[in-house]
């Protein structure tokens, strides 16, 4: 009888769906910081039009829903950050990632965060705020971004 109970417990354990790492666990906290750092590195590479860093951070099958709702593949996104595009774009002084909510599922992570870009346009600093949803996965032991979605946040009513 006790062997049957042990067997049933083992089966129920193996059939339990995987849950995200518990917030506050040592492994969970360090992994959360790691994936948030990757999302910030992506934002920094976008700000500086650093195509080499984008190549390193984006998974081979990367896909993105842009702030205007276009669905862009990896080559199109990386191509957007060319030297020619940088020369035409208004300077962005900073891109900050905050209010991050992270869920870790083994070798996959989802990060929902607020992204604030400070754009220097015509002598004024104008913040642009978006919510981002990032899906990351570990490839060969390194976190890569598989997809992003950007959604504009309405400015506060005056």
Structure characterization notes:
The structure is a single chain. The protein is α+β, with helices and mostly antiparallel strands. It has one domain (20-152): Nuclear Transport Factor 2, Chain: A (Roll). Helix content is 36%, strand content 42%. The protein is built from five helices and six strands. The chain has helices spanning 2-15, 26-48, 51-57, 74-80, 83-88, and strands spanning 58-65, 71-73, 92-105, 108-121, 124-139, 142-152. The protein has a six-stranded mixed β-sheet with strand order 2-1-6-5-4-3. α2 (26-48) packs antiparallel against α3. The longest helix has 23 residues, at 26-48. It is globular and about 45 Å long. The N and C termini lie far apart (71 Å).
Summary tags:
single chain, 158 residues, alpha+beta, Nuclear Transport Factor 2, Chain: A, 6-stranded mixed β-sheet, 36% helix, disordered N terminus
Task: Describe the secondary-structure layout.
Elements: H1 2-15, H2 26-48, H3 51-57, E1 58-65, E2 71-73, H4 74-80, H5 83-88, E3 92-105, E4 108-121, E5 124-139, E6 142-152
Helix pairs in contact: 2-3
Quantity of strands, as a count: 6
Task: Tell me the number of structural domains.
Answer: 1
CATH class label: Alpha Beta
Which percent band covers the strand fraction?
35-45%
CATH architecture: Roll
Output the strand order for the largest sheet: 2-1-6-5-4-3
Q: Rg from C-alpha positions?
A: 20 Å
Main sheet record: 6 strands, mixed
By helix and strand content, what is the structural category? alpha+beta
What is the succession of H and E elements?
HHHEEHHEEEE
pLDDT average, as an integer? Answer: 83
Low-confidence stretches: 1-26
CATH topology: Nuclear Transport Factor 2, Chain: A
Number of helices: 5
**Helical residue percent?**
25-40%
Distance between the termini: 71 Å
Inertia-based shape: globular
